[in-house]
């Protein structure tokens, strides 16, 4: 019993990280119908910025955890958001009227550029950040125990908060209405006076900000990263977005949680060798039953 | 790249080409992960080989001809290893190669060197399959995983007296080979492991696997793999409150292991097998001193790489620069190196392996007696 509970905790934290990154894939797809393959690498960049931010803050003699964490979050989110904006500006906007394929290739190119740029400027070695928040809650269940580090609780709290704020922004604010209008019909939205280019830029920034949240949390928790770290987690998050229904915001969060939980439970209860096989089989199964994902709307051909 | 830089590169390439023709230097490749996640090992390889080549050249080269090193980057990827091996053989016309590092790269590359008749001396690839292929031109100056597995398994049984051993590997040639070798020796002692599973290289979250390790109540966790996965693994093991002894092979021996794990406290008490301290050989005192004087600590595989270069140079020097005859010669004659006399058997393995147990204390791997 304790083991199942512990696996649920493992799965939830992993899943909420997948969910945060999946948001970037799903929102960009929703609004301009492209898959931003550079998104995993934006996450990777944010891991490096996290380490740099921590180094800067400790250099100034700041040692209290709350100040470091808030400062790091702020710096990383700002810089990574800027990356998101610049990437859209130089790699995707010039190709706005080209075929979908051209943008896709541009995205793959952007991904390679980011990886190589980081590798050249930061070195190819494994990087690490020291543990900032130590300690854990432990409670016994039956004969065993469940142990949750404070860091894991923090990950759950921040990612749920981030998702909550984003949902509020999209559903209730003027910016959100503009996003939704652009998603439904870009031409009509621009006729009605919405600056759709600006909305698209904003969506890229939001995606990058969510990836930056994930980057800070994961980097602080696992402590290790390199220039290639965005690849696997990017693929997993993309899978989560498709699983939940690409284009759907709650779908991305749900997909992330399902993927994280299924990986943890399968690896923990059956076999870690085949956990990826299981996750992707689950994806195939869901797509057979619901071709547009769990919460996705079926694509209607616009005439 | 600016025009000036391009011009400079072209000129230096032209000069280098001319020099090759004029003096017919002995070209030796240094193949390994010079970039990528394992670049720290590539640097050790390069530093060792570079120093050895400089020392040999300063002493008059190989039969009067200078060694010219060519850096070949395989990033520890089998496909890239094959393509750089082809490049070394075809366009660089290397006579010998020091490398590769990862067994998964060395094995496919060794076939190319065999076909081309190039001598291959790896400082670090320990997978048994590499020399079990039966190629006459392949040598290693390190031990084999099965020798490493023997040492680890007997330590678990005789010293730790552990009964519940969980075996984890990274599904790669090296990691799984090491884990399998350990497992078969352990089973030969009459002990059955409580768990045997693989993880995915490149991932950082192993919490699910660790909860499972906890659930089987393991005393010892044996990991076949490299430090980039071992770091997060041992950290998450401790974070979930497990006190199991963590044990691994030579793949975790790098200062990066500590930084990747987050802090020295997480790696305190971690055990690993490794060749007896390469800096401890009397024959290597001078070279080690020179390395330290230049501000570089010859850690990990640096001296193995130095040794591999010496072995390759000795084979070429005693056989009129013929790599095939040199390979034959190495099997019948011992070579003096900075790590003592090295004698190879018919497969190209060392006759005497030098594996011993190390323990991590205060962020350093210390040899146990």
TrEMBL record, chain A:
**Key words, A-Z:** Amino-acid transport, Cell inner membrane, Cell membrane, Membrane, Transmembrane, Transmembrane helix, Transport
One GO location term (cellular component): plasma membrane
Extract the Pfam families matched here: BPD_transp_2
Q: Which membrane topology term applies here?
A: Multi-pass membrane protein
Q: Name one GO molecular function term.
A: L-valine transmembrane transporter activity
Cross-referenced PANTHER family, in alphabetical order?
BRANCHED-CHAIN AMINO ACID TRANSPORT SYSTEM PERMEASE PROTEIN LIVH, HIGH-AFFINITY BRANCHED-CHAIN AMINO ACID TRANSPORT SYSTEM PERMEASE PROTEIN LIVH
Q: What is this protein called?
A: Amino acid/amide ABC transporter membrane protein 1 (HAAT family)
In which organism is this protein found?
Marinomonas foliarum
Q: What is the lineage of its organism?
A: Bacteria, Pseudomonadati, Pseudomonadota, Gammaproteobacteria, Oceanospirillales
UniProtKB/TrEMBL annotation, chain B:
Q: Does the keyword Signal apply?
A: yes
- What Pfam families is this protein classified in? Peripla_BP_6
UniProt keyword Nucleotide-binding present? no
Keyword annotations for this protein? Amino-acid transport, Signal, Transport
Protein name (database record): Amino acid/amide ABC transporter substrate-binding protein (HAAT family)
- Which Gene Ontology biological process is one annotated for this entry? amino acid transport
Query: From which source organism is this entry?
Result: Marinomonas foliarum
Q: Name the InterPro entries on file.
A: Leu-bd, Leu_Ile_Val-bd, Peripla_BP_I
Please state the span of the N-terminal signal peptide per the UniProt entry. Answer: 1-24
Q: What family, per the record?
A: Belongs to the leucine-binding protein family.
CDD domains associated with the record: PBP1_ABC_LIVBP-like (cd06342)
Ranges for domain Leucine-binding protein: 26-363
């Amino acid at each position: 019993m304790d083991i199942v509970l512990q696996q649920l905790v493992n799965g939830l934290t992993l899943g909420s990280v997948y969910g945060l990154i999946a948001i970037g894939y799903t929102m960009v797809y929703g609004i301009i119908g492209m898959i931003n393959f550079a998104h995993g690498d934006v996450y990777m960049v944010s891991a490096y910025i996290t380490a740099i931010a921590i180094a800067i803050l400790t250099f100034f003699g700041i040692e209290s955890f709350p100040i470091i964490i808030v400062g790091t979050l702020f710096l990383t989110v700002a810089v990574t958001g800027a990356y998101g904006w610049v990437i859209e500006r130089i790699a995707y906007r010039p190709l706005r009227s080209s075929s979908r394929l051209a943008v896709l290739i541009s995205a793959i190119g952007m991904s390679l550029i980011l990886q190589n740029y980081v590798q050249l400027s930061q070195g190819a070695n494994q990087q690490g950040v020291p543990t900032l928040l130590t300690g854990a809650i432990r409670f016994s269940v039956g004969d065993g125990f469940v142990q949750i580090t404070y860091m894991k609780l923090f990950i759950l709290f921040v990612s749920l908060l981030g998702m909550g704020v984003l949902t509020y922004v999209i559903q209730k604010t003027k910016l959100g209405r503009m996003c939704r209008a652009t998603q439904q019909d870009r031409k009509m939205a621009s006729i009605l006076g919405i600056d759709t280019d600006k909305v698209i830029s904003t969506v890229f920034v939001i995606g990058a900000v969510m990836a930056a949240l994930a980057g800070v949390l994961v980097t602080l928790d696992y402590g290790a990263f390199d220039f290639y770290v965005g690849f696997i987690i990017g693929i997993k998050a993309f899978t989560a977005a498709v699983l939940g229904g690409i284009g759907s915001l709650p779908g991305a969060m749900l997909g992330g949680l399902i993927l994280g939980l299924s990986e943890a439970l399968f690896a923990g209860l059956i076999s870690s060798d085949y956990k990826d096989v299981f996750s992707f089989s689950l994806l195939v199964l869901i797509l057979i039953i619901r071709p547009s994902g769990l919460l996705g709307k079926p694509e209607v051909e616009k005439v | 790249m600016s025009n000036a830089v391009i011009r400079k590169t072209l000129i230096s390439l032209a000069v280098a080409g001319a020099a090759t023709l004029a003096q017919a230097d002995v070209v030796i490749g240094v193949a390994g992960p010079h970039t990528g996640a394992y670049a720290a090992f590539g640097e050790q390889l390069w530093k060792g080989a570079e120093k050895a080549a400089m020392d040999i050249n300063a002493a008059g080269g190989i039969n009067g001809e200078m060694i010219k090193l060519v850096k070949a980057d395989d990033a520890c990827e089998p496909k890239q290893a094959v393509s750089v091996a082809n490049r070394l053989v075809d366009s660089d016309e290397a006579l010998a190669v020091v490398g590769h590092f990862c067994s998964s790269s060395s094995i496919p590359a060794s076939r190319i060197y065999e076909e081309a008749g190039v001598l291959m001396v790896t400082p670090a690839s320990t997978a048994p399959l590499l020399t079990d292929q039966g190629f006459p031109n392949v040598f290693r100056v390190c031990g084999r995983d099965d020798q490493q597995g023997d040492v680890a398994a007997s330590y678990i049984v005789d010293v730790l007296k552990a009964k519940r051993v969980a075996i984890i590997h990274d599904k790669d040639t090296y990691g799984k080979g090491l884990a399998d070798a350990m497992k078969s020796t352990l089973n030969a002692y009459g002990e059955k492991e409580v768990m045997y599973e693989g993880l995915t290289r490149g991932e950082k979250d192993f919490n699910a696997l660790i909860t499972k390790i906890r659930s089987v109540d393991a005393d010892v966790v044996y990991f076949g793999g490299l430090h980039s996965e071992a770091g997060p693994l041992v950290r998450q093991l401790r974070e979930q409150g497990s006190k199991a002894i963590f044990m691994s092979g030579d793949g975790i021996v790098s200062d990066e292991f500590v930084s990747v794990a987050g802090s020295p406290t997480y790696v305190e008490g971690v055990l690993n097998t490794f060749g007896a301290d390469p800096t401890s050989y009397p024959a290597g005192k001078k070279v080690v001193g020179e390395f330290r004087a230049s501000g570089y600590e010859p850690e990990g595989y640096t001296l193995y790489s130095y040794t591999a270069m010496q072995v390759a140079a000795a084979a070429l020097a005693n056989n009129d620069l013929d790599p095939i005859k040199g390979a034959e010669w190495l099997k019948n004659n011992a070579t003096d190196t900075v790590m003592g006399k090295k004698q190879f058997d018919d497969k190209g393995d060392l006759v005497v392996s030098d594996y011993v147990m190390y323990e991590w204390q205060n962020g350093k791997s210390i040899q146990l007696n």
